[in-house]
Amino acid sequence: MKIAVVGATGLVGSVMLEELSLRGFANHEIIPAASPKSVGKTIDFAGRKLTVVSPEEAIAQKPQYAIFSAGASTSRKYAPLFAEVGCTVVDNSSCWRMHDDVPLVVPEINMNAVGPNHRIIANPNCSTIQMVLAVSRLHWRYQIKRLVISTYQSITGTGIKAVRQLEAEEDYFAHHEVLSSQLGETMMQELGDQYQPAYPYQIFRNLFPHGGDFNPDGYTTEEQKLVDETRKILGDPNIQVTATVARVPVVGGHSEAVNIEFYNEYDINEVRQLITDTPGVILADDPAHNLYPMPITAHNRPEVFVGRVRRDNTQPCTLNLWCVGDNLRKGAATNAVQILERLVKKA
Q1: Are residues 220 and 92 in the same domain?
Q2: 95 catalytic residue (yes or no)
């Protein structure tokens, strides 16, 4: 079996290759593809050296499957071309997620949305994946009316440029005690060309309520994804969702505080059991022993961790919980490869 990985040299692409190796695809023919600047490079995969090719070359090899993490514009251009040669594409970008004829899939929740004629399948946004997985069985049991979500998102969600910004700032501030509300001109002059920030503000010892681009209504594109994608994955356009996204100086994963209002009253012990019984979710919730999920808990793990489960005492039928997941794993690469696993089993 031939499997193309488009965007293989990026942060998520490299983790996709790791997941393919871990999940039983090590002996298949893997075709790494990337932008022209990476073509010809070699990468390690399961003890082998693979040569990076262009997307056009990957298409010419007619793979049965392709997983993409190369951005929306690349996916818009190349995913249909892969599909034309009989390839099924699992795409991690935002390009296809809200197309009516493209399933948006978290395998534990809605793999049945994928039909035999679907050639492009969308992988949801990282913050959406972990949140909907954590609440999916609660929705099926009690029916969610409204979600209020606050996210604390890792810089790895922005990409390698953001990681390098944090590393450069950590090094700089180890020798300087100045903190600034803006990226300081002195810092930029001293660091020179090696400092190419991904954000308009320093991220070291800082955070900001900004992820994605601002829409005219004041919400960001990252916040709007939580609204639209949650409704599509859970199959309920009536769920009310409001979100605030913050970027934090963390590399291990995304954290989310979620307030859930149900139509129906719940039993807190049953809630805990439903979360425990959700495939891919681990309940880590023992306040008496300071047990709760943190990014360091989820780092490099494929599961979503849930804790701080408690009743909202201000109104009926309402629950608070905290969930954490590695945004490069379950939030992106792991989910995509899990979709691939299910497709191969169906074939």
Answers
A1: no
A2: no
